[in-house]
């Protein structure tokens, strides 16, 4: 499901601490934590707990503390926290992110802007497969797309959602599906629930 | 000045310490030289008494300068002839052949901060970095580790530069490398150039401190790597066999008998001289081939690598 012939489609791994890191920051999208899974994450990150900060994002993020815990209402607050970071992050630090793809890439991009290298960032996909879609025609980004064909929030064209992924935008490419035969839209499937 | 090689004239030469000689080289025909960026090196053809040497030296001239190339050459005690030739025979007015400048050690433009660690004469590439950063306002720090009596040798190039620290082997003056590496902010890039043992130590410490590999850059001194036991090499395409002496590299031996071989850095870093190895076991000393390529044993970098067994057969 998360694999594609299109090479730009990212692949994700399970999270585990990179023991060569100095400080570890784990950011979890609360909605994507299955019951009991936070316990298991706590176990996984136990070896680095002394140098671990956890940011739990969203309303569902209850339960356990992993290292020093900070609760944030939404992904916009994570982005702000990076943008306004007064504490300097170190070149040996590691960032681990769990969540849906739009969440992962919003966080990864905010971290990259303040200097994090791709090698310092570990992403684990969890929860919904919903996609952020970038319209190749009007360049509008449509959020929370779960269907194989979606209406563009900007120009309302019917967009075929491709696996072609942009790390810069954190979005999949959407191209007009009925450009050659207007109105002929194939059956819409719920592909990214 | 267009051609495969450059013809340079020694415009000035002076000793800046008992073992360091500074050279200023201009185009022999008075024209402008090709510009080079920070971190670039120049390969000089040195016609010594015994044989020809081709040695690469970092350019310390201001990046982009077209009037002259400047280098500093250390007289190596166990010199294979190149540095001895420059120190003992080369004089103002002499003409030298050189390759076009190459660059395998350019600063990373996206870096938030540049951290440079130099060992002795390994400071040379960083002198051009400093000249470059002075224009761009980049955040940087240079740490020079050298002998106590050489701490002021490079002052003419360091004058007015902030964030330069000099360290030597005495209590209170040694560089605490682990502490330095641990204190660097996200987005930093590390550059190290010095003797092999120092390079290896810094690279190891950086990995241990969690530095991403893509943020760590190293330039090795090539000449120290290429000597060893004598061996023979057969060049299959040319149909000739050559014996490689203890103090010459395989590449130098190939050049000596007049077979043309591509090369750029002559230090095992760039991979331009990579040659198919048809038979024999290589002693790989380069920094270019992957572990898998070394294991496969089908390629060799003749600028630094030698034979483990008695004879190599090259597809050259």
Describe what you observe in this structure:
The complex is a heterodimer of chains A (193) and B (316). Helices cover 16% and strands 29% of the residues of chain A. Chain A is of the alpha/beta class. Chain A starts with 23 loop residues before the first strand and ends in a 17-residue tail after the last strand. Chain B is of the alpha/beta class. Chain B has three domains: 6-103, Translation factors (Elongation Factor Tu (Ef-tu), domain 3); 113-219, Nucleotide-binding domain of ferredoxin-NADP reductase (FNR) module (Rossmann fold), CATH 3.40.50; 228-314, Ubiquitin-like (UB roll) (Roll). Chain B has helices at residues 82-88, 124-136, 155-158, 177-182, 196-208, 250-256, 291-296, and strands at 6-17, 20-27, 40-47, 52-58, 69-74, 95-98, 102-103, 113-119, 140-145, 164-167, 188-193, 216-219, 231-235, 240-244, 275-279, 282-283, 299-300, 306-307, 311-314. In chain B, strands 1, 2, 3, 4, 5, 6 and 7 form a seven-stranded antiparallel beta sheet that branches. The mean pLDDT of chain B is 91.
List the helices and strands and how they pair.
The complex is a heterodimer of chains A (193) and B (316).
Chain A: E1 24-29, H1 37-45, E2 52-57, E3 68-72, H2 75-83, E4 94-99, H3 101-113, E5 121-125, E6 131-135, E7 141-145, E8 149-151, E9 158-166, E10 171-176
Parallel strand pairs in A: 1-2, 1-4, 2-3, 4-5, 6-10
Antiparallel strand pairs in A: 6-7, 8-9, 9-10
Chain B: E1 6-17, E2 20-27, E3 40-47, E4 52-58, E5 69-74, H1 82-88, E6 95-98, E7 102-103, E8 113-119, H2 124-136, E9 140-145, H3 155-158, E10 164-167, H4 177-182, E11 188-193, H5 196-208, E12 216-219, E13 231-235, E14 240-244, H6 250-256, E15 275-279, E16 282-283, H7 291-296, E17 299-300, E18 306-307, E19 311-314
Parallel strand pairs in B: 8-9, 8-11, 9-10, 11-12, 13-19
Antiparallel strand pairs in B: 1-2, 1-6, 2-5, 3-4, 3-6, 3-7, 13-14, 15-17, 15-19, 16-18
């Amino acid at each position: 499901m998360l694999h594609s012939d299109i090479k730009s489609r990212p692949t994700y791994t399970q999270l585990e601490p990179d023991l060569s890191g100095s400080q570890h920051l784990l950011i979890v999208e609360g909605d994507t934590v299955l019951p009991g899974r936070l316990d298991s994450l706590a176990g996984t990150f136990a070896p680095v707990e002394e140098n671990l900060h956890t940011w739990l994002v969203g309303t569902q993020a209850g339960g356990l503390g992993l290292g020093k815990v900070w609760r944030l209402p939404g992904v916009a607050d994570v982005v702000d926290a990076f943008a306004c970071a007064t504490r300097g992050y170190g070149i040996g630090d590691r960032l681990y992110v769990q969540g849906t793809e739009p969440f992962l890439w919003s966080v990864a991009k905010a971290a990259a802007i303040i200097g994090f290298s791709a090698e310092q960032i570990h992403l684990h996909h969890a929860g919904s497969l919903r996609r952020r879609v970038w319209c190749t025609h009007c360049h509008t980004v449509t959020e929370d797309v779960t269907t194989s064909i979606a209406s563009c929030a900007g120009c309302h064209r019917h967009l075929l959602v491709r696996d072609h992924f942009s790390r810069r935008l954190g979005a999949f490419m959407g191209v007009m599906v009925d450009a050659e035969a207007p109105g002929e839209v194939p059956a819409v499937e719920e592909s990214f629930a | 000045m267009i051609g495969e090689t450059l013809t340079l004239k020694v415009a000035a030469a002076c000793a800046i310490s008992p073992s360091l000689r500074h050279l200023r080289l201009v185009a022999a025909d008075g024209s402008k030289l090709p510009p080079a960026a920070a971190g670039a090196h120049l390969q000089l053809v040195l016609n010594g008494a015994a044989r020809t040497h081709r040695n690469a030296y970092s350019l310390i001239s201001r990046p982009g300068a077209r009037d002259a190339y400047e280098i500093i050459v250390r007289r190596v005690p166990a010199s294979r002839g190149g540095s001895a030739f420059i120190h003992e025979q080369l004089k103002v007015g002499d003409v030298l052949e050189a390759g076009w400048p190459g660059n395998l050690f350019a600063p990373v433009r996206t870096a938030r901060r540049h951290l440079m660690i130099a060992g002795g004469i390994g400071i040379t590439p960083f002198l051009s970095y400093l000249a470059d950063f002075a224009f761009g306002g980049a955040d940087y720090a240079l740490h020079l580790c050298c002998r106590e009596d050489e701490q002021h040798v490079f002052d003419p190039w360091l004058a007015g530069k902030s964030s330069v620290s000099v360290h030597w082997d005495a209590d209170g003056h040694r560089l605490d490398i682990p502490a330095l590496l641990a204190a660097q902010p996200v987005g930093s890039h590390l550059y190290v150039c010095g003797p092999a043992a120092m390079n290896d130590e810094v690279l190891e410490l950086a990995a241990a401190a969690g530095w991403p590999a893509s943020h760590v850059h190293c330039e090795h001194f090539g000449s120290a790597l290429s000597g060893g036991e004598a061996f023979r090499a057969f060049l299959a395409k040319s149909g000739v066999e050559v014996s490689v002496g203890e103090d010459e590299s395989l590449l130098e031996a190939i050049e000596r008998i007049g077979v043309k071989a591509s090369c750029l850095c002559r230090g095992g870093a760039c991979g331009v001289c990579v040659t198919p190895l048809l038979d024999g076991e290589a002693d790989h000393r380069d920094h270019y081939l992957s572990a898998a390529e070394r294991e496969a044993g089908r390629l060799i970098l003749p600028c630094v690598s030698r034979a483990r067994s008695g004879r190599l057969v090259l597809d050259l």
